[in-house]
Each structure stands twice: as structure tokens, then as C-alpha cells.
Design goal:
Layout: H1 10-20, E1 42-46, E2 49-52, E3 57-60, H2 75-86, H3 96-108, E4 114-118, H4 121-136, E5 140-144, H5 162-165, H6 176-179, E6 182-185, H7 190-200, E7 204-210, H8 225-235, E8 239-244, H9 255-260, E9 270-273, E10 284-288, H10 290-293, H11 312-324, H12 327-350, E11 356-360, E12 363-367, H13 376-380, H14 387-396, E13 399-400, H15 417-436
Parallel strand pairs: 3-13, 5-6, 5-7, 7-8, 8-9
Antiparallel strand pairs: 1-2, 2-3, 4-10, 9-10, 11-12
Bound molecules: pyridoxal-5'-phosphate and the ligand N[C@H](C=O)CCC(=O)O.
Keywords: Cytoplasm, Isomerase, Porphyrin biosynthesis, Pyridoxal phosphate
Subunit structure: Homodimer.
Pfam families: Aminotran_3
Length: 439
Amino acid sequence: MDRGTGMSTNAELFERAKRAIPGGVNSPVRAFGSVGGTPRFLVAAKGPHVTDAEGRELVDLVASWGPAILGHAHPEVVQAVQDAAAHGLSFGASTPAEALLAEEVEARVGPVERLRLVSTGTEATMTAIRLARGATGRDLLVKFDGHYHGHSDGLLVAAGSGLATLAMPGSAGIPEAVAGTTLVVPYNDRAAIEAVFAEHGDRIAAVIVEAAAANMGVVLPDGDFNAFLARTAHAHGALLISDEVLTGFRVSRAGMWGLEGWTGDDAPDLLTFGKVIGGGMPLAALGGRRELMELLAPLGPVYQAGTLSGNPVAVAAGLTTLRLATPGVYDRMEHAADVIEGALTEALAAEGVAHAISRVGSLFSVAFREEAPRSFEEAKAQDAFRYPPFFHAMLDAGVSLPPSVFEAWFVTAAHDEAALGRIVDALPRAARAAAAATA
Ligand SMILES: Cc1ncc(COP(=O)(O)O)c(C=O)c1O
Ligand SMILES: N[C@H](C=O)CCC(=O)O
């Protein structure tokens, strides 16, 4: 499919992109770095499918890294976007729909009394941290090894996602002074949290945690770990930032908070959202208690701004997506996850491949090890060499998986029996390829 490029194959497009764009991609995980081969250049997406430049339709388990819970290009979302666009692409001024979106989130997620819209998850977490520092007058941030919260300086320390994929310990270009304000602890390690607070408690502004880790593969919080973090932070006058950029409105209608339901001292102080809240458009948000959120300018001293914040086309996509995300949508996603989990286990077990599937709601991934990992150290201690041949066997059979063992698999409510059937049919051969892999 040419689309004005004069080129038709993924390989040609990748070569051209590499001559114009660093590494040929605008986000590192897209480059197939850890699985090898040529990235697919996509030209269309509809329902559970994406179509590449060679006209090949693939069943998609990336779902734009999470936003597409309804399936790609849901007609009502597309219509809402077209209607909004017809009235103007961007105003740089308030619009009536912004408050409707904020109300929609506040009605679902108890700890969110006020919401500020931004454009990316990176901006949401960056702003939440600035707000926590402004509120507490402290400078240190605690984050977890292998958690990813976007690419702002202080958060690219021991991060997951593309850094895990590329085995990068951090990023160049981050001043020591900034990196030094981030304290990294192993995930699910309560003793490590207690120790870090015992040593630095009066300087810690906040703990930031993925509500369920999903950027080192899915790694679930142990028991009431999130509530424990809130209680420990609060006991030391610090805040808990629950990063729901990935889990928000995906693992349930109210995200991970909706599944755990922590309130009072156990609840997070600030929450960040992205992906689903924008329905596939660039929109993200941070929210929390009124008195904290009102420290943001223009009411308070913590500054945050954005030319495109609350963009009307993005708000239309997000609002329509959330309104369409009925309990039935979550039932369909869970059904899709059930079918894939069952078939994946069966296929890998039949080949004697050690594996563990970690899952919350419909969000899951597979690790090539006996036990589900509880930390980044454990997530890295797996037979990761089995993933590239597994991935390529699935791709050859027409199923697009995330191009890294450290990323989650994303289903949508549009994954119908036909799409699921293609995945199930592809798995036995992929499991054989995983079994045959050598380190
Ligand atoms: C948990 C989490 N937080 C933050 C981000 C950053 O969001 P964005 O890529 O929109 O900047 C991501 C994903 O990229 C994420 O998974
Ligand atoms: N793990 C990231 C999002 O959740 C992958 C998306 C990206 O960084 O391109």
C-alpha cells in the first residue's frame, strides 16, 4: 500500500525512515530491537485488526499500547472526533467538554476530586511529582526498579519498558543532581520501603508506583502492597502517586483503584491517567484530592501549562470512549483474555516450556520462567531468548504481539471469536518455536 510514499514493503519503508528519523522510529520499542526483523509499518486499524503497508491484516494484541479498549476506530469514537474536528482543531481556551470528562473520571475514581488534563502520560507523572514536591516542600522521590512512568528526567532511573527492552540502565543526558533525587527500591519489597523511609523519611516528597506494574511484563502488587505504600508514605508526611496511565479504565471501569478500592489513609493522594482516557488521541491527566490539586496554577504556586492541554478533538475521543466503556465492554475484554490465557498455557505446557502468566483484569503477559515474577530482578531472570522466535511465529501466522517480552499484551472488546480463533490457532506453532529456542 503506497499512500504517497512511493514504497510498498515494510523493509523499504523502514530503510527510508532510518534515513530521516533516528533508528527509523519515533518511540524506541517500535524498532523490533529485542525481537529482530523488520517492524511493520501500519496504514490502518479497525476493530481487533491492524493492516500493514503490504496490505496484510494482523490480529492486534498491542492496541496502541492500551488506549483501544473498544477496538480500533470504533465508529462512535470516530464520529465524535470528526464532529469535534469540524468545529476546530484547537482553541487554546477552555471548552465545555473538558469538565464533562473530568466529571466522568471523578464519578468513577473515588480519590479523584479534581482533574487536570495534559497531553501525555509523561506530562501527567512529571506534573504529579512537581505537585507532590510543591505540596510537601521536599525533594526526594521513591520509584520502583523496572517501573516506567514516561521519559521525564527523574523517572528514567532503573526504568522498564523500552529501557528494559534495550537493557539500558538509564538514559544519558540526565544531570547527576536530578537522578540523585530519585531513590530506587525493588518492587513488592516492604522491608526496602521501610528502610528507605527510615533513612530519608523527612526528605521524601512521594512514592510513585505503577498501580500494577506492566512495563517489565505484568508484575502484580503483592496483596495490599499499594495500601501499604500509602500508609507508609503518609506516616512520614509523604504522598503516594498511583500511576494508572496504563491500568486506568482498562483493568476495570475505575482502573486498578476500582479493583482495590483503597480509601482514607490507604488511598493514593494523586493518580495519573493516559492511554484509555484519550481514546487513542494525545490526552492524559492527573487527579487527586481537592486541596492538593488546587495547589496547581492558577489557584496555587505549582506551575503546569500546555498549548494543547484539553485539546477538543482529544477530549471528544476520550469522553466518548469512557461513555461507551460499559460493564459489557469489560466482560468482553476479560473473555478475550480468558481464551488467550487458556490457549497460551495449553500450547506452552504441551511443549514443556516453563512459563507463568501474570494477569489483572484483562491485562496480562507471559514470562518464560516457572514462577510469576514479583520484581524486576525476577522478571529479568527468565528465558527471554524464547520470546523472539515465539513472537515471529505469531507474526507469521498473522498475530501482532508487543515486540518485547517486557511489555504487556492488550486485548480489546472487539476481539471477537474469529480474531480469538486466529490467535488460538497460531499458538501451538509459536510454542514449538519457543521450545526449540536456544540461549
Ligand atoms: C505506567 C505508565 N506511565 C506513564 C507512561 C508514559 O505515557 P506516555 O507514553 O503517554 O508519555 C506509560 C507509557 O508509556 C506507562 O505505561
Ligand atoms: N511501555 C510503553 C507504554 O506503555 C510502550 C509505548 C512506548 O513507549 O512507545
